[in-house]
Amino acid sequence: MDSVRLDKWLWAARFFKTRALAKKAIEGGKVQYNGARAKTSKGVEVGALIRVPQGWDTLEVEVVDLSGQRRGAPEARALYRETAESAARREREAEARRLTNQAMQHPLKRPDKKQRREIKRFQERSGE
Questions:
Q1: Domains delineated in the chain
Q2: Residue 52's closest CA among 32, 78, 68?
Q3: How confident is the model over 7-14, as a mean pLDDT?
Q4: According to the UniProt record, where is the region Disordered (predicted)?
Q5: pLDDT tens digits, 60-81
Q6: Can you spell out the DSSP letters for 68-79?
Q7: 94 in helix, strand or coil?
């Protein structure tokens, strides 16, 4: 196989559930191919670097193999290799999110009627 469409490769590598979602992400500028925006019909080549959003993180992967067919997850993972910088950045950001969530104090109970009124008044005042 010489090349595969970018949207089809992202779908086959299981970054997106459907090709339509892959197409929407590419057209929205969320996916970068070798550091630049690309069209959905862009031909993917072995060795290319692709940045793909995955939830809170952005993965930077190097294309190792080409496939236009969606297969099992282990075979899909064989299509790409995540760069070391991307893995390190992902770990740092996950740790920062974890620490931020720990620092936030969640209320023990829901606000009662009086507290809801106070919250509403505060929001109205700060919105002006």
A1: 4-126 (3.10.290.10)
A2: 32
A3: 96
A4: 77-128
A5: 999 999 998 999 999 999 999 9
A6: SS---HHHHHTT
A7: helix
